[in-house]
Design brief:
The complex is a heterotrimer of chains A (426), B (307) and C (292). With 307 residues, chain B is mainly α. Chain B has helices at 22-50, 67-73, 76-107, 114-126, 129-139, 146-153, 165-193, 198-205, 210-221, 223-237, 242-248, 259-268, 273-306. In chain C, a hairpin with a 2-residue loop joins strand 1 and strand 2 (253-254). Classes of the chains: A alpha+beta (426), B mainly alpha (307), C mainly alpha (292).
């Protein structure tokens, strides 16, 4: 008798498992004309954008798209996990040039789906860095370009008779004149990937680069040390940047400017829309844009958000249809209208620049120049791990734990070892 | 009454006429054991085995023996994390236990408002670490945060809480102490209230000062409770993640990288699961080792004395 | 009675009516200080949640908000669709509590009453499971639920929380079951009650406070969890409040006001339990420790 009752107890306990297995096929149910996508969001406008894109796509092709939206950072972590589990939950991913080297074996190559003339439509700098340098396979297709320009408080600058800085020296001079009374002349991010982006821009501006001809680390060159010293001094010596910036990522970097506390920063295209919207900005109508600062060269990053096809997907044809649609002319025009994302297609970029007026036109031309001269860091084997190392190295210098030279030299030694082990030199 | 001293190994019971057979015992226990086996032990074993492989997204996963472990044990970033972990655990546990005991002893009386105070003390340990982490990040903001604003109000210099390496470690310790000291207070209060009264009364009659009573009578009697408190905190400081992640992400420059935070960075930013797993297991091994010391050393000493 | 266990700064003879001495003043001071330090971060959280967005970034800081507003709370629901997170969190927490106790009570009963070979091994395993850093499980756990097809469902969260909370619940209940005099069970069993009936009708009611204590603890720790939810969910279908909290951080800003408002909402269940189930909570948190 008690055996019976125990069995009942056991049944009760495994009720969840049973319910789960009943639910499983329901969850996995997907018609042949339905695909799934994990897409990026950022701020209140994105969800409406994707809704419209998916609606239009379904109306045009009859293919349904079920999608989930995540912010950039959680999205990155999620795609890592999904790939580690070889999951086929999503057919399509939003991705980015930043970590693409980790996914060369997980995203299906898109080469065969795009003709050479189609690919030539896109900014070459974006396409180049989405390719596996070993095999030449294209891991993702750029959806929009990301590059930074200077945003500054035109009202305050005018009041004080200042012009936006063009060089490193001017950046410090102008910053010093603006800093005081709880306000700061500039804000830069100083944590993680945003810190590496900022260092990277300064490194190129100082005339340096990440690796040399033989792909060995070269960021600890004279130029690199000068760049990191300048970056640190903005915060620690000149104090024109709030000291908490050492722990800031993009969001707090943007918030410092949009809240009116700081008078200049370097930000992405999306900031143009955010700063124009009274719901997200306290300085509507009080700001303007200028080119990124320069030193020996006027170079900063030109990277891209991109769309990728899951290698595990069982519905590749339909998924590619969707990817093509999201990088197509209509989608690119719409994302520019909605949140001023810069098109990845050169033709559409020309089109929106031609149509733009006033400050927006000026800004777009600045961006276009940045992208034309822009770079991305190398996509060598092991570079994702090198990035983690760099976050720490840069933060250590910025927070005055280690001198810029020591920090970069140490990182260069370790980076070479990491890349060697990962097979970058095989 | 002497609940403190009552220390019974379960299962060791006097003979009973009832059918408490082991088969029936396992039948009752098996659903729980199976769930834990499937959902905890299997993944645990899987990632333990994979910590001996090169486990990333490169497609091939060759066996590399203890490669991941030796890389980390001799690596700079791991050693920084280990140093931080040691400081974090030792300092926050010491403060929590000492302050917890001091507060418990002080408030262990018929004070007015005690019920309310005890209610408030229960709140921090039960609040989501996510809320604690984000709230402390905001409290410690040097421009908009409350703490530096208060310091400025009293004309004291600002403290660079989260942007200075040493202060950042202090900040995460403060958050941990804030959240967990009340738990220690509650534990010790419960312990104090179940102490036998005779030795204390006898000591008072003998004219012992309060300090003597505390040091020579209360503390030795409280030893089992203190041991449990230490055990809980050792286990938990080696698992701390959310609060530190949301406050500093291990920065600046790894100054607040604890072992779990470092492991998370390895897995999700460096995309190197093998190394991440190795770090997790080193952390687990370390907390087992420390617990072993905690319980093993007094046992060895007792054994020595017996000889 | 309690007088005798009052130790510390008080240096007065016992069995004397307590007078207001320096010692007592010290005690009140210590109590007040402790309470103040405990409360002020929460007060700040609340103050941030009733500020206007402009006031949040004012320099110098206004410690007391210039005007109180509920706009942050409105935007938590209107702009961020927080209701969905709340429901998921409630479902996951309640289901976990039920499932944990369906499994833990018989298991604890078996471990404390039956002569089981390997019981010590099970105890060791329970302890180790309590010690696992969740990060070590994240990716394999994800793979397990991917294989079961349960990813991004509340079931994945319920099952994983159940497993994760079981060791603590079993440990806690053990202490309570050991306190039940065996004679009561023996009487019931000699009346012909089977093992399960004895457990359900005799033992369970007797350890009701213990079950209550572990239920409250299980509920709150599940309610608070971030890491498992972050790992196993990717859509509104299953995301919980702590994950929702991280959504106030977007690429172009952190919405501190709305995030604090959501934080205050998250703390409400804690306050409710602390107020109404204080005894159970204290019991749950301290029982295992005091018993050893």
């Amino acid at each position: 008798m008690s055996g019976n009752l125990s069995r009942r107890k056991f049944l009760a306990a495994s009720a969840a498992v049973t319910a789960g297995s009943i639910a499983a096929p329901w969850i996995a149910r997907a018609q042949t004309n339905e695909i799934t996508a994990l897409l990026i969001t950022g701020g209140p406008l994105y969800p409406k954008y994707w809704e419209k894109i998916v609606q239009d796509f379904t109306a045009k092709t009859g293919i349904k798209v079920r999608y989930d939206l995540l912010e950039f950072t959680p999205l990155t972590a999620k795609v890592v996990t999904l790939s580690a589990a070889r999951s086929s939950q999503y057919d399509v991913y939003s991705t980015h040039t930043a970590q693409i080297d980790s996914y060369f074996n997980h995203f299906a190559p898109l080469n065969s789906y795009f003709s050479d003339s189609e690919l030539a439509e896109f900014y070459p700098v974006a396409v180049k860095y989405l390719r596996d340098p070993k095999t030449g396979n294209l891991a993702a297709i750029p959806r929009n370009m990301d590059a930074r320009v200077q945003y500054y408080r035109s009202d305050i600058y005018q009041e004080k008779g200042l012009k936006p800085a063009e060089t490193w020296e001017e950046l410090v001079d102008v910053g010093l004149k603006l800093t005081g009374n709880g306000h700061y002349g500039l804000v830069v991010p100083g944590q993680g990937d945003p810190a590496q982006r900022t260092f990277s821009d300064l490194l190129w501006q100082a005339g340096g680069d990440w690796v040399d001809q033989a792909n060995k680390p070269a960021f600890n060159s004279e130029a690199g040390i000068r760049a990191l010293t300048f970056y640190r001094d903005l915060i620690q010596k000149h104090k024109i940047v709030p000291s908490d910036a050492v722990g800031y990522q993009w969001n707090e970097n943007s918030t410092e400017f949009s809240s009116g506390t700081v008078y200049a920063n370097f930000d992405w295209p999306g900031a143009f829309a955010t700063l124009s919207n009274p719901e997200t900005s306290r300085i509507v109508g009080k700001w303007s844009t200028a080119p990124y600062v320069r030193d020996k060269a006027a170079i900063s990053c030109a990277i891209s958000h991109a769309m990728a096809l899951n290698g595990q997907s069982g519905r590749k044809e339909a998924a590619v249809e969707f990817i093509k649609y999201t990088v197509g002319a209509d989608a690119q025009r719409l994302q520019f209208e909605q949140f001023t994302n810069f098109p990845s297609s050169q033709a559409i970029a020309k089109e929106v620049i031609a149509a733009a007026k006033g400050p927006q036109a000026t800004w777009l031309r600045q961006l276009e120049t940045t992208i034309a001269n822009g770079k991305e860091w190398p996509k060598l084997a092991g570079f994702s791990k090198v990035c983690t190392l760099m976050f720490s190295a840069i933060e250590q210098a910025l927070s005055d734990q280690v001198s810029p030279a020591d920090s970069l030299n140490q990182a260069a030694t370790e980076a070479e070892e990491i890349m060697r082990r990962a097979g970058a030199y095989d | 009454m002497s609940a403190v001293a009552q220390h019974q190994a379960p299962g060791r019971r006097r003979r009973s006429p009832l059918p408490y057979t082991w088969q029936r015992g396992y039948l009752l226990a098996s659903p729980a054991l199976l769930v834990m086996l499937a959902i905890l032990v299997y993944p645990l074993g899987y990632s333990f085995i994979m910590s001996f492989f090169r486990w990333d997204l490169s497609g091939s996963a060759p066996f590399i023996g203890t490669g991941n472990y030796s890389d980390e044990l001799f690596g700079r970033q791991f050693n920084q994390a280990l140093r931080n972990q040691t400081i974090f655990s030792v300092v926050s546990i010491t403060i929590e236990v000492v302050a917890g005991m001091a507060i418990a002893v002080l408030v262990n009386g018929k004070l007015r408002g005690m019920r309310l105070a005890r209610t408030l003390l229960l709140v921090p340990p039960m609040i989501a670490p996510a809320v604690v982490g984000l709230n402390f990040r905001w409290l410690f903001n040097t421009q908009y945060g409350l703490v530096d604003a208060l310091l400025r109000m009293f004309n004291l210099p600002d403290i660079p809480w989260l942007n200075h390496p040493a202060w950042a470690l202090v900040s995460v310790i403060v958050a941990d102490v804030w959240q967990n000291t009340p738990l220690m207070v509650l534990l010790f209060l419960a312990g104090l209230q179940s102490l036998p009264q005779e030795p204390l009364e006898a000591a008072t009659v003998d004219g012992a000062t309060p300090w003597q009573r505390f040091w020579h009578i209360v503390l030795p009697l409280m030893r089992p409770v203190i041991m449990i408190a230490l055990m809980l905190r050792i286990i938990d400081t080696f698992r701390t993640f959310d609060v530190v992640w949301l406050m500093t992400q291990g920065g600046p420059g790894g100054a607040t990288n604890l072992l779990t935070v470092y492991s998370y960075l390895l897995a999700f930013q460096a995309v190197d699961f093998g190394h991440a797993a190795a770090v997790s297991y080193i952390a687990l091994g370390m907390s087992l080792f420390v617990l072993g010391l905690l319980y093993g050393v007094p046992w060895l000493i007792a054994k020595r004395r017996a000889i | 009675m309690t007088e005798a266990v009052i130790v510390g700064a008080r240096s007065m003879p016992k069995r004397r009516r307590r007078r207001f001495t320096a010692g007592i003043a010290g005690q009140y001071l210590a109590l007040a200080l402790t309470v103040a330090l405990t409360v002020f971060p929460l007060v700040w959280l609340f103050l941030t949640s009733i500020r206007s967005s402009a006031d949040i970034f004012s320099v110098p800081v206004h410690i007391i908000p210039e005007t109180a507003t509920l706009t942050q709370y409105v935007s938590v629901f209107a702009q961020y669709d927080t209701m969905g997170y709340v429901w998921n969190t409630v479902i996951v927490s309640v289901a976990t509590v039920v499932l944990v106790h369906l499994l833990a009570i018989p298991c604890a009963y078996a471990l404390s009453r039956f002569r089981m070979p390997g019981a010590m091994l099970i105890f060791g395993l329970l302890l180790i499971m309590r010690m696992i850093p969740v990060i070590a499980l994240a990716i394999p756990l994800f793979a397990v639920f991917a294989a079961l097809g349960l990813l991004d469902t509340v079931w994945a969260l319920i099952l994983s929380h159940t497993a994760a909370k079981l060791p603590v619940a079993i440990w806690l209940l053990l202490g309570f079951i050991q306190d039940v005099p065996k004679e009561i069970e023996e009487a019931a069993q000699s009346d012909g009650a089977g093992t399960v009936r004895t457990l359900v009708q005799i033992v369970a009611p007797l350890i009701a406070p213990g079950i209550g204590a572990s239920a409250v603890i299980t509920f709150l720790f599940t309610w608070n969890d971030l890491l498992l939810a972050l790992t196993l969910t990717s859509s509104k279908a299953a995301q919980t409040l702590p994950v929702g909290l991280t959504n106030f951080v977007s690429q172009f800003g952190i919405d501190w006001g709305a995030m604090s408002a959501a934080g205050v909402l998250m703390v409400i269940p804690t306050l409710v339990f602390v107020w109404f189930a204080q005894g159970l909570l204290v019991k749950g948190l301290t029982t295992g420790a005091v018993r050893g």
